[in-house]
Amino acid sequence: MWLQSIQLKNYRNYLSAQANFSAGLNIFLGQNAQGKTNILEAIYFLALTRSHRTRSDKELIHFSQKDADISGVLQRQNSKVPLEIKLAEQGRITKVNHLKQARLSDYIGNMTVVLFAPEDLQLVKGAPSLRRKFLDIDLGQIKPIYLSDLSQYNHVLKQRNAYLKSAEKVDKTFLSILDEQLADFGSRVMEQRYDFIQQLELEADKRHHMISYTLEHMSISYDSSVSFTDKASIRSDFLQQLTKNQQRDIFKKNTSIGPHRDDVQFFINDMNASFASQGQQRSLILSLKMSEIALIKAVTGDNPILLLDDVMSELDNDRQSKLLESVVAEQVQTFMTTTSLDHLTKIPDTVSLFSVTQGHIEPQ
């Protein structure tokens, strides 16, 4: 798949903008604070109905306006798919083929994206919430049922925590009913994460081994707060441990275990990657991003769109070359932001260049 065009109205610093893209490499060139990242954010938002920079829709609307519109035309193998998201004070409207979508899971997955941004370099050393978000975004795009299970789990979790906080005397029978529901949805979330991490590890290790000139192997560990012996026992083990921890949860007034406390650890040659050099960590993240592309293609049968937000300046010349070589080899549509072309090496001949100045996009 590839994004043919995008139209922005009242989005960030774009009162009105339109651009047509190529199926290969598209580079947005301009100085800082001109709107380059806003374009990538808009493409990301069009795919996932969320920003990678803010949780507030209000921040996406031009300060002088009350609503915004992001739309685009996606070229699939045999058809064109118009996508649109309207943001207004009363909420948002998502459309596919000009038809309103009632559920998030009906919209997400039409257009898949992989984002590589400077903050991704914190994936190794940052908070566990960053790694959970990484799992949720990838799985949500390729398995709509995962989004549904995660949403249901979070709903029951919120209900359970609210009850623990508000109840003067906890009814353990009612708490056990909530535990059953939490185990139902939570076990499905964990099973899907477990499978995805195993698949990701295989793909990422192959790429990391190549990027490191066959000197390093990488591995990924799924660290769950729920101890389980194998995938088939996750639900029963989760429910048993919820029951065992009830008294502790009543005292602390929150839920101590579950996928909301999951974590992922990365290893290079069996050493925790948080202790690796910055160069090794960057190679690891690069391997992960290219593996995401391969996994999405394997599940959906179509390439995702790759978004590179000012990451080339974070990579040395060798890693830049490896990334661009991988992009060409995967034949994936790519959008890249940069302030200069001077540091880029081996740019493909088929590149499309856009100049971005004060909220205006001009093809070069």
From TrEMBL:
Q: Does the keyword ATP-binding apply?
A: yes
Task: List, for all copies, the residue spans of the domain called RecF/RecN/SMC N-terminal.
Answer: 3-361
Keyword list (alphabetical) reads:
ATP-binding, Cytoplasm, DNA damage, DNA repair, DNA replication, DNA-binding, Nucleotide-binding, SOS response
Task: Indicate the principal place this protein occupies in or around the cell.
Answer: cytoplasm
Domain of life assignment: Bacteria
Q: Which cellular compartments is it found in?
A: Cytoplasm
Q: Which Gene3D superfamilies match?
A: P-loop containing nucleotide triphosphate hydrolases, RecF/RecN/SMC, N-terminal domain
Among PROSITE patterns, the record links this protein to: RECF_1, RECF_2
- Which regions span the lipid bilayer? none
Residues the record lists as binding ATP: 30-37
Q: Which InterPro entries match?
A: DNA-binding_RecF (IPR001238), DNA-binding_RecF_CS (IPR018078), P-loop_NTPase (IPR027417), RecF/RecN/SMC_N (IPR003395), RecF_2 (IPR042174)
Which Pfam families does this one have?
Answer: SMC_N (PF02463)
UniProt similarity note? Belongs to the RecF family.
The record describes the protein's role as: The RecF protein is involved in DNA metabolism; it is required for DNA replication and normal SOS inducibility. RecF binds preferentially to single-stranded, linear DNA. It also seems to bind ATP.
Q: What is this protein called?
A: DNA replication and repair protein RecF
